[in-house]
Amino acid sequence: MAHLLSTHCTMKLSINAKVYTNLPNHHPKALFTSLPVHTYKHPSKSLVFHKRKDPKHHVFYATAVPMSKEAETQIASGSHQSSSGPSKPKRVMIIGGDGYCGWATALHLSNRNYEVCIVDSLVRRLFDHQLGLDSLTPIASIHDRIRRWKSLTGKTIQLHIGDICDFEFLSEAFKSFEPDSVVHFGEQRSAPYSMIDRSRAVFTQHNNVIGTLNVLFAIKEYQEECHLVKLGTMGEYGTPNIDIEEGYITITHNGRTDTLPYPKQASSFYHLSKVHDSHNIAFTCKAWGIRATDLNQGVVYGVRTDEMEMHEELCNRFDYDGVFGTALNRFCVQAAVGHPLTIYGKGGQTRGYLDIRDTVQCVELAIANPAKHGEFRVFNQFTEQFSVNDLSRLVTKAGKKLGLEVQTISVPNPRVEAEEHYYNAKHTKLVELGLQPHLLSDSLLDSLLNFAITYKDRVDKAQIMPSVSWKKIGAKPQTVTA
Ligand SMILES: NC(=O)c1ccc[n+]([C@@H]2O[C@H](COP(=O)([O-])OP(=O)(O)OC[C@H]3O[C@@H](n4cnc5c(N)ncnc54)[C@H](O)[C@@H]3O)[C@@H](O)[C@H]2O)c1
């Protein structure tokens, strides 16, 4: 699959803010012509195209208006000034910035005056095409999203489209942007996707582990000061019958005591890729002095952030299907369309959860308070824990208030996991740094449900039931259909 993504290009959308900040409600297609890049089907556009010495790496600067002298100088030099001076904004590279968490974070940090650059292969959009899925919300192309952001705020988000498994591409992105921090969301993040068949399992582990390894080498090679903020998952820990600590546990064994990485018990090929990432990062912190924060994130819910409220074209994706949808988002959509809430097995599966507005807050806190050189810091990034049964009760109650008749069914659990277990995970470090959580309140549930109701005509009910079984995975390529 990776071969589909082997070509890459770097795009800098240069827009005259003066013109477009005055025209916030114009559709960008009326304002801009488009990019003559093979992967994007747009009509012709005025384009400044500078070919570098390296014939495989092209830098595109697309503009609908004449570019400023300053921008032209930047193109000519092929690099930007370093941001080491105290007055300069911090430069944050967001890998996976077209995805669910990444797009919300890119907008949030840009709004907070960080200089933001998105790196993304757009493979998440390809998964939808492969599996016949779609976001509940209509989402604009990454180009239109960025142009709209610029037209509304005057702020530029740089865009590098390519696969981070391609080290040459990643190197160029690093050399041209010179990030102070890299936030790495850019992975295949669905456990069911990784359990479809052998090729998806191999793709997931290759994409995630090699991608992260490349990021570590890029930091070592080009940007040693750069702080890596890597999205891990609470799923790395599994569900042990003891409290889950934040990354490390102090153990006394046969009279000797040590503080060791907390044991990992991943439960899918996806989760295993995250465990391997964590080990590779920890090793390079020790060996090369890399500074890194591993954010073991819980399950994210919600869709709106302050920035997205500004325009529908900034809207985030919202997955509700059996492969990419996460529990609470799925339940809200199921309630909205009158589908019984699908509880896997006994429903006692308990996990940490957080609002997407807290994801962006946590990432900003991690960037603003970086790890020290050689430090491998682990934060458990969630705000509350719920069982699947808890969530179904909450959604049922909220649905009733809105006049919905919500039913639940227990479906055979497609996963191999404990359905009743002890779960108590620590999550104090981000709160100590200043996280102010948005807890799951009745009003938030109401608004999530109302959101699902607004888009319910876009729901493909055939995508709701789980279609991937942990036990039935085989070597033969599978076509997942509803
Ligand atoms: N969404 C959640 O509930 C959740 C929970 C825990 C952890 N996480 C972690 O957070 C991160 C982001 O999750 P998300 O829900 O935003 O996922 P997503 O699939 O919506 O976004 C991931 C983005 O990364 C890009 N990408 C993937 N592989 C790439 C590669 N090799 N090169 C360049 N870009 C690549 C995709 O195109 C996509 O835009 C993931 O690492 C995931 O494991 C998410």
Automatic annotation (TrEMBL):
It holds the Pfam family Epimerase. Residues 92-380 form the NAD-dependent epimerase/dehydratase domain. Coiled coil: none annotated. Gene3D superfamilies: NAD(P)-binding Rossmann-like Domain (3.40.50.720), UDP-galactose 4-epimerase, domain 1 (3.90.25.10). Belongs to the NAD(P)-dependent epimerase/dehydratase family. This is NAD-dependent epimerase/dehydratase domain-containing protein.
